[in-house]
Specification:
The complex is a heterodimer of chains A (about 250) and B (about 325). Chain A has 12 helices and no strands. Chain A is mostly helical and about 250 residues long. In chain A, helix 4 (about 55-75) packs parallel to helix 8 (about 135-165), helix 7 (about 100-130) packs antiparallel against helix 12 (about 225-250) and helix 8 runs antiparallel to helix 9 (about 165-180). The longest helix of chain A has 30 residues, at about 100-130. The complex binds adenosine-5'-triphosphate and magnesium ion. Magnesium ion (MG) binds near residues 52, 53, 93 and 169 of chain B.
Chain lengths: ~250, ~325
Amino acid sequence: MTFFKDTWIVFSRAMRLSLQNPLWVIIGISQPILYLALFGPLLQAIAGAPGFPPGDAWQIFVPGLLVQLGVFGGFFVGFGIIAEWRAGVIERMLVSPASRTALIAGRVLRDVIVLIVQAIILVVCAMFFGLSVPFIAIVLGLIIIAMLGASASFFSYAMALAVKSEDAFAPIVNSIALPILLLSGILLPMSLAPVWLQTLSDINPFKHVVTAIRAVFRNEIVTGEVGLGVGIAIALVLIAAFVGTRSFANQTK
Amino acid sequence: MPAIADGPIIEARGLKRTFKIRKGTVEAVKGIDLTVQPGEIVGFLGPNGAGKTTTLRMLCTLLAPTDGTATVVGCDLRDDPVGVRRRIGYVAQSGTTTGEAVAGQEIVSQAQLYGIDRKTATERGKALLKSLDLDGIWDRKCGSLSGGQRRRLDIVMGLVHEPKLVFLDEPTTGLDPQARANLWHHIRDLRDRLGTTIFLTTHYMDEADSLSDRILIVDGGKVVAQGTPQELKQRVSGDAITLTLRGRKDTAQASEIIGGFEGADTPNVDGNVVRAHLPDGSTALPQLLRALDKAGVDAIGLEVARPTLDDVFLTLTGRSLRD
Ligand SMILES: Nc1ncnc2c1ncn2[C@@H]1O[C@H](COP(=O)(O)OP(=O)(O)OP(=O)(O)O)[C@@H](O)[C@H]1O
Ligand SMILES: [Mg+2]
């Protein structure tokens, strides 16, 4: 299938460019590690307080950090494609017979691989701090994070190509990513929030993904929470992939 | 396979493109008809904003026409854009490479998008680089190349899949005279060796003149004239005669003499200089000199200039291409 071949070509090129300049990968991973080291201990002290979901502090906190990594990392990839568009790379690829979906999917695949590596580093570090989760839970957690990251990347590329200007893109990303993260209860669980805030966060699909990963980390895998979270993650990927592909195809309108 | 054996390689009818901008619309291309035969080198000549890039981007499937139809290498622009893409090459006006990427790797990955394997892509890429005096840049980052080298790399990337038809949007901007001459040579060679059809845009009269078999002059989103460089030059009313006199007193008489030649236009007097056009300047020259001498007109200079495409443009649009 030329779609898979094209995706692979676009992916290898993008990956090579990322590996050439690993600085931003390192910055991306150092941030959650700072959270682990500087915020984790605080949380540990209050994790037993009433209103906290079951599980120890790390089981609550690490899933939140993973989602933050996926959502923030994913939303920011759009900056890269604006630069590529400006350099004429996007147009050069669009004039080739390559599948439009492959042109974006290859880049998203690169983002997902980078994310997975970052997530593994994060989980391993968290284990040194005291996280204990079964191996299967880690694998499932990473799969959910990969889907989340993929949808954030697809959306980010779509928005970036729609505006084509870093100056316009930066405020858009911030104004979307920040409420999403705050309303997902990544730092503190939403069960601590007043009712109106809980209702707001219930509308946020990302919150359910965080909840699902927390359940997975408690080894409560076959539950409604996990089912809902995984279902939402799959739906997000499908919608985002559609929107992203559309935005690539729209470049030739 | 589409039937492309004999018919034109590009056939466009009434191509139009309107852009929406903040206040209203811009009619970038206002209805262009084109017919290009296989193996032709066609020059698309026009001033800034004439609609050259817009037309090219439509023919390359990068921009949907607002109106009109076109067949490119036997494939319909709207019905079979992928078919068009497979058969053409396009080198954009404003570059195609990102600074961090390594030249050779970019060439190979671009070729792979056309289904060419790595080995063939590497061979072809290296050969192309060599023919454009770029050997040795294979492992270099695009950002480390000079402007002209990077421009030639763009061209290599547009040719690596050996398309039947290549669109080059101002391929020689930023090239030094030697690189420019070399690129012209390469473009002709491409046509002679592989029968590639070449459609290029340019602002340079000399480029269009010496490179193209046929020239289309565009202005304001329309083709205002077309033909071989020779044909177009014949549209200008002959050779330009510039006669310089010692003083101003004889200008009237000189004008009368020049104006009396067959086919001459009304001479234009500017100080002690008289300008006019004659259909065949060089043959008229000896006669003119004799006539001036006999009338006692004291001429200190006489110049005959063959028309250039610049003059053609001026005649057609009333503006100079350099404006
Ligand atoms: N994306 C766009 N949005 C709005 N207007 C556009 C767009 N692209 C081109 N135009 C306008 O269309 C007209 C034709 O532009 P085009 O780029 O085709 O000119 P050109 O002949 O290639 O000029 P140049 O020699 O400067 O490259 C110009 O007036 C330009 O401002
Ligand atoms: Mg242009």
